Amino acid sequence: MEEIKNALQLANDAIKAKKEQVVSDYRLGYHIMAPANWINDPNGLIQYRGEYHVFYQHHPFDENWGPMHWGHIKSKDLVHWEQLPIALAPDESYDKDGCFSGSAVDDNGVLTLIYTGTIFIDREKDILDQSQCIATSIDGIHFTKDLNNPMITKHPAEGSGHFRDPKVWKHEDHWYMVLGTRKEATGKVVLYRSMNLRQWEYLGVLAESNGNEGYMWECPDFFEIDGKYVLLFSPQGIEAKDDQYQNRFQTGYIVGDFNYETFKFSRGEFTELDAGHDFYAVQTLLDKQKRRIAIGWMDMWESPMPTKKHGWAGALTLPRELTLINGKKLAMNPVVELEQLREKKIPFSINIINDESICTGICEELLELAVDFSLKDVTADEFGIKLRCNEGTEETIIGFEVDSSKVFMNRDKSGSAVSGIRKSKVERNSDICSFHIYLDRSSVEVFVNEGLNVLSSRIYPQKNSTDIKIYAKNGQVSILNFKAWKLKDVWQ
User: Distance between CA 75 and CA 78 in Å, rounded?
Assistant: First the structure.
């Protein structure tokens, strides 16, 4: 017990000291971040005793990835967050190289974390030995690892030492768990069940790659929504195709049907969930209002991260409510609680843009925009919004290509280190193209047509690049609605 205290204390002391050195230029105003140093995957999303808890993969000793700890933060409203002490440190023989991703459940009042203990057999050759472990807390803050860890010591024959990221839920009188694994070059999700979270029965492969869906399936999540079942996961190794799968790795989902008696999942096609530059390792929770809420890592492996020079790296997306449209497609929209961020409404009125770029006079780092463009009488080839602009050298473009019906984000001029264009095909079900945009100091999240298309990306503009413009190319477009709000900084 004393060793555990020492490991956690060292981690918490390191963060406390580093926090004082962090440069604030790119620090986000209303997103989840660690106080300092590195974070990646969100873990353990849960509503526990009336509060939302989010854990995250965290290296408290450096701004680069390293031995994973579990950072911890909570909120009463998904808007205002309170940093808590680090929950888990890699200090046992079975997790000495990292407490990797996992989930959280409420076990009769006991907040229980189920995570992956990691041992590197040969890091250069990517050979791992991973097991599944448990830690519990009565107060929701301080956690004790189970003396019988690990609970699952070995991967199944259908998998390999890459065996991680447990997501656990309860159905009737059993707990169920999905885990990501691989067998040679085939990514898979495997299924277990238990009566007590300690002894687990292997039920088999829930789903696996069809040969074109990646060599490793990370961070699985499995849930029912509107009578269908969704397998959400992050495959590694999918080849880029046209506008799809442009990042190093992806996050996406499969919709299908599941039978708790046969444990068979009849699956549909894999669909990418977010078309932006920075979105990975999503996890969800079902809250007391029966909403399925998702949060992802708002970065990507091997992406430029200029904030490392400032003493920190990594952030999480806004909380998003998932809904299933026509039993086939997931839509993501910001949770309604985020309206609390609105500090003041900014007036701006315009009806038509005709082959020009117009400065709105809005100059904010933290901003929410809701803009509806008419497709009924559009003659422009392209239209949209330019964010974080200055005198010609910096801008982030959120646009719509009329002929191809594609929304895009262009960050070739988005500031330090970053570049690249991401596109997503829009289903034109109406005569309106709506953009709902959340702009933070170093991020943009775009929700198009009620969240049917979403793009999330990090940007790093100069501090004086704050102008917002609206534009059309080679013709005109009508603007049916334009709303803007200055947003408050919840961290100040």
Answer: 6
From the list 182, 187, 267, the residue with the least C-alpha distance to 222 is 267
Contact residues for 282 (Cβ-Cβ < 8 A; gap 6+): 42, 219, 221, 232, 234, 251, 273, 294, 295, 296, 297
- For residue 384, give its domain range: 342-487
**Tally of domains within the chain:** 2
Other beta carbons within 10 angstroms of residue 282's beta carbon come to 27
Would you say residue 5 has pLDDT above 70? no
- Written as one letter, the residue type at 126 is D
pLDDT of 2 over the 70 cut: no
Same domain, 318 and 358: no
Beta-carbon count within 10 A of 85 CB: 14
- Give Cα separations from 374 to 274, 475, 477 (angstroms): 24, 13, 7
Q: pLDDT (tens digit, 9 = 90+) per residue, 392-422?
A: 899 999 999 999 999 999 999 999 999 999 9
Identify the domain boundary among 310, 337, 364: 337
Query: For residue 357, how far is the Cα from the chain centroid?
Result: 33
pLDDT of amino acid 195: 98
Last residue of a domain, one of 277, 307, 337: 337
Residues with active-site annotation: 41
C-alpha–C-alpha distance, residues 230 and 178, integer Å: 12
In one letter, which amino acid is 5?
K
Judgement on whether residues 267 and 356 belong to the same structural domain of the protein: no
In this prediction, what percent of the chain has a pLDDT beyond 90? 97
Contact criterion met (CB below 8 Å) for 408 and 473: no
Position 126 in a domain: yes
> Does residue 492 belong to any structural domain of this protein?
no
**Tens of pLDDT, residues 116-163:** 999 999 999 999 999 999 999 999 999 999 999 999 999 999 999 999
pTM of the model: 0.97
CATH at residue 452: 2.60.120.560
- The pLDDT of residue 391 is 87
Nearest to 285 by CA among 42, 30, 94: 42
The answer to whether the beta carbons of residues 53 and 46 sit under 8 Å apart is yes
* Contact predicate 60/87, CB 8 Å: no
Half-sphere exposure of 171 (CA within 13 A, CB side): 13
Whether residues 140 and 191 share a domain: the answer is yes
